[in-house]
Amino acid sequence: MNRSLFPARTLSGLLRVPSDRSITVRALLLAGLAEGTSRVLCPLESEDTEAARACMAALGVPIAIQHEGDLPALRITGQGLRGLRAPAATLFCHSSGTTMRLLAGLLAGQTFGAALDGSDQLRRRPMRRVTDPLRAMGAQIEDTNGCAPLRIHPAQGLLRGMCYAMPVASAQVKSALLLAGLYADAPVTISEPAPTRDHTERMLGAAGARLQISHADNGAATVTLSPPTEPLRALDIRVPADFSSAAFFLVAASLVPGACLRLSGVGLNATRTGLLDALRAMGARITIADLREEGGEPVGDIEVCAAELTAIEVGGPLVPRMIDEFPIFAVAATQAHGVTVVRNAEELRVKESNRLEGFLAELRKLGARAEPTADGFVIEGPTRLRGAVVDGLGDHRAAMALAVAALVAAGQTTILGADCVTKTYPGFFDDLARVATFDYDRRSDRPSGGA
Ligand code: S3P
Fold first, then answer.
1. Rounded to whole angstroms, what are the CA distances from 385 to 20, 310, 333, 413?
2. Which residue's alpha carbon is at the smallest distance from atom 16 of ligand 1?
3. What is the pLDDT along the chain (451 residues), one digit of tens a residue?
């Protein structure tokens, strides 16, 4: 499906973007290992979370969806740490890297074997970062030239504990090793080079797992999980709105002249909100109201209004805290005054698409002055973008970022393959139409950017 967009004339109102993908996937996995019935209120319902749900169902976990008033809620009947059953067929993870990597850890210590596979896109993503340390714990895993499909053989007894310093700052690797640690004979200690999202640690803690966490000066965690002496307790959580989905509207409202938006109930875990820090440093007008805690995560309402942005430099420990936000950050950079420089972000090459070469090439079709570097990119702004035909690259975040660029581009922009947004945000274009009015005049060449 292709989508055509026009410049936004106005952008205002109130929006609750969909629930958090990372938290929903983790809840599905952990609830399956707990004892008793977990309640997960407001789960994300998207392609990625459906993949995780179907895999857990195939492992023998009953999952029902009910409604509490207007709100959807999952009831997940946990099978205990040793209660999963061998899947009858290959577990298909679609394009969900989180599902595949976390399941690899969860399955590594089981007494049955399983195969994991996914879409062609997922088959291209690196898996050795998780299979190598799992093998060091004694797991028997075959990968396919370092990628999926993966075949996990039944564990012979318990896995081994270990101390592991992760070479890449990856929450997926950290989470996979913690899940494997539930089946180890001794503690597993993982240290990350820079802070990464800590949803797994929070949820494991809530389930009663034995965790110890310390932090280095740059905020990076060292997490030790000791072998469980008791079953995991069932979860009762409400999933906040996904900061990574809110990000598109944070930037859109910063760029569309006169815009003001309120985004309600957004997850504000500091390991995820690097974009907030970056946008504020650029001069964005963003305020947080009603900061609270829900389901063990900080949550708040975000108000954002249009502002003149100034270029900044991003690197170091900020990078993993905004790792999924670089496509939309790049769009903001095209409208900022000065030269924006991103460093230490080579991981962007191995996301759903190559978010350095691939994504920046699409942005250049709109007139952006954006060039990749060895470990990031350089963008010169502000640029008056012009509508063009661009490719969503099969990457949900590329497609949504290009849609936001279209709001400040002159004339019509067509995004090819825009339906890939279903991975995390099936209603993205409907939500955009709810808060924006468009300038359908194809000859329009309004200046973009600024308050
Ligand atoms: C995720 C971690 C990040 C992120 C991904 C989701 C998670 O990946 O990019 O979209 O849920 O743990 P890495 O662990 O590869 O950095």
1. 31, 17, 12, 10
2. 170
3. 999 999 999 999 999 999 999 999 999 999 999 999 999 999 999 999 999 999 999 999 999 999 999 999 999 999 999 999 999 999 999 999 999 999 999 999 999 999 999 999 999 999 999 999 999 999 999 999 999 999 999 999 999 999 999 999 999 999 999 999 999 999 999 999 999 999 999 999 999 999 999 999 999 999 999 999 999 999 999 999 999 999 999 999 999 999 999 999 999 999 999 999 999 999 999 999 999 999 899 999 999 999 999 999 999 999 999 999 999 999 999 999 999 999 999 999 999 999 999 999 999 999 999 999 999 999 999 999 999 999 999 999 999 999 999 999 999 999 999 999 999 999 999 999 999 999 987 554 544 443 3
Quick one: which atom of ligand 1 is closest to the CA of 102? Answer: 12
Q: Which one is catalytic: 20, 324, 391, 431?
A: 324
Do 354 and 221 share a structural domain? no
Same domain assignment for residues 104 and 123: yes
Indicate which CATH number applies to the domain containing 103.
3.65.10.10
Where is the domain boundary, 198, 228, 258? 228
Ligand 1 near 190 CB (within 6 A): no
Cα–Cα distance for residue pair 9/420, rounded to 1 Å: 26
For residue 169, the ligand 1 atom closest to its alpha carbon is 16
Q: Residue 441: which residues within 8 A CB-CB, separation 6 or more?
A: none
Indicate if ligand 1 lies below 6 Å from the C-beta of 242.
no
What is the total count of domains within the chain?
A: 2
**Å from CA of 123 to ligand 1 middle:** 16
277 and 177 housed in the same domain? no
- The reply to whether ligand 1 has any atom less than 6 angstroms from the CB of 172 is yes
Domain match, 205 and 314 both: no
Clarify whether 445 is annotated catalytic.
no
State if residue 272 touches ligand 1 by the CB under 6 angstroms criterion. no
Same domain, 244 and 166: no
Write down the residue that tokens 């820079």 correspond to: 194
Query: Do residues 340 and 372 both lie within one domain?
Result: yes
